[in-house]
Amino acid sequence: MRRLHHFALDPFSRKLRVLLREKNLAFDLIDERPGERRDELLHLNPSGEVPVLVDEHGAVVADSTARPLPVSRLRRLARRLEAFEGSKSMIRSPD
Fold first, then answer.
1. Average pLDDT over the chain, rounded to whole?
2. Cα–Cα distance for residue pair 46/63, rounded to 1 Å
3. Residue 87 to residue 38: CA distance in whole angstroms
4. What are the CA-CA distances from residue 28 to residues 68, 85, 89 (Å)?
């Protein structure tokens, strides 16, 4: 299930909550407190800013421009990232 790291009073977090609900997309809310800088949030977004949306496949969209992408587009992006990561492991440095 999607997870939305948000701060309840943040207008950008609110915008994303409204958009997710308008699209009838299921998501869990994870409350973040300004200045707390939890390790989980910093792992997802090193700036520690919200909102941060994590989809059911683990793709992370962070920043105030975070918005739910169509599932098909998220899957294409995930496949490209996996292919890129796989190609990096096949590249060898000259010895």
1. 79
2. 11
3. 33
4. 14, 29, 34
Q: Which residues contact 12 (CB under 8 A, 6 or more apart)?
A: 50, 51, 64, 66
Query: Could you tell me the two tokens for 36?
Result: 């707390």
Residue type, 91: I
Distance separating alpha carbons of residues 24 and 40, to the nearest angstrom: 26
pTM tops 0.70, yes or no: no
Q: What is the mean pLDDT of residues 53-78?
A: 72
Alpha helices in 2-57 (DSSP H): 11-22, 39-44
CB-based contact 56:68 (threshold 8 Å): no
Domain boundaries, the chain: 2-90
Q: In degrees rounded to 5, what are phi and psi of residue 54? A: -115, 120
Residue with tokens 């949306």: 53
User: pLDDT category, 2, cuts 50, 70, 90?
Assistant: very high
CATH of domain 2-90: 3.40.30.10
